[in-house]
């Protein structure tokens, strides 16, 4: 048999192997200079691997069975074609054509499958869930020509294929792209002498705008740690008007020394936080990581819409509760309602009064036998109320004890100072009009073209699915277009085009990744609390005590055995 090219000959044998139920591999290729003279293609179970480990029962399985099936292909000099000169069809193992499509050589991921895997990985969907969605869409495992391992391998090799040397550079390129999208994106870096990242801080435009409204109380947490480079991940977290945590800034620190925290808090301070981009771009190099996901932004938008279009009914007839109902978001109004319901367990008594300044004792029944006393002061002239529990000072809502006193005084409206603007649903906050900083995936040109075609074809498919006639028209159009594209592809066979975008990022390319470490999660040298240290010391003492007791018992046993042996020898 003769073929025009070596690829055609190899493709012919692979098609035969798939139909027969086995897979192939190129065993050897002989060349003369740069030209291929002949090639040997064998069954993938050719050869035999012998384990050097004993016993052999514990070694990994091997596919080699010295299978003799093979073909020899060599070129014809005069004709310029390729010929199969020798064929061996016998196998040393059974072949199964029905299972051939699940062999590694024939398993493949189509473009649509690959794009779905990439999108799901970007959204944080686990590979197992992605594979199960393919199974459900295809109608069962038998309808797929790939397995879950192929999905995981594609994510590891293609989607997350970033070398350690390129991590820091990609870190900086990400921030440059975010800065180009929105000039209010802020970041700063502190570099080591070898240009590796020592400290990093960043916050996008939406977080900076949210800081204006929710920056009164901020939590800084350094619990988390990166596995690969042992960098401490710190987060600045506030509370929005729905009572939810909102991310205001992020940081990476190589260590938790005092100087590191000083640098970080200087970046966070108002002066450094509002500096112009051009001032610090000259002094610092750059940073990465995805944060402030769109799901949080979308949830906040949905809650804002619910606050304006729905109403939570009042639990009591109090006009003060109606005042909070009109002003507060649903999330905070539910907290206020909990205080109004708890007011039923409070008994209010007047203790002292002088010139409009009243002191009340509020007794709250916690259980059938437990009563707690609280002192509440009320200034009728200034319309101020203050409770001993300090719930308003800590949580920003009036406590049940203060509400009980206001009800006792028959107050119909609370002072505006107790209706905080940060919980209001009527304030138009600037940060809600700013999008979060999201990076567009860096796709190959083919992937971009594929997404564009899929997006345009969705409307056509939806329209054609309305009837059988429209579906038949679309099928006919697809067949014609497919034939035309195959003809064009055959005409252009052997030619290729290459396009790429080049960027001059000298400052970014100088960045180096921190030293790689082998660890998972937070290391044991984390700054633990006093309670953790006490528990660890107590456990250590307990283990030492048990070990000492075991050693004493063993020593006694040895002594007894020695005495018994001496007595036996003496009797002899």
TrEMBL record:
Keyword Transmembrane: no
Pfam families: FAR1, MULE, SWIM
UniProt keyword annotation of NADP present: no
Compositional bias per record (Basic residues), positions renumbered to this chain: 517-527
UniProt keyword list: Metal-binding, Zinc, Zinc-finger
Stretches the record annotates as Disordered: 499-528
Domain SWIM-type: from-to ranges: 374-410
InterPro entries, alphabetized: FAR1_DNA_bnd_dom, MULE_transposase_dom, Znf_PMZ, Znf_SWIM
GO MF annotation: an example: zinc ion binding
Protein name as annotated: SWIM-type domain-containing protein
Provenance organism: Arachis hypogaea (Peanut)
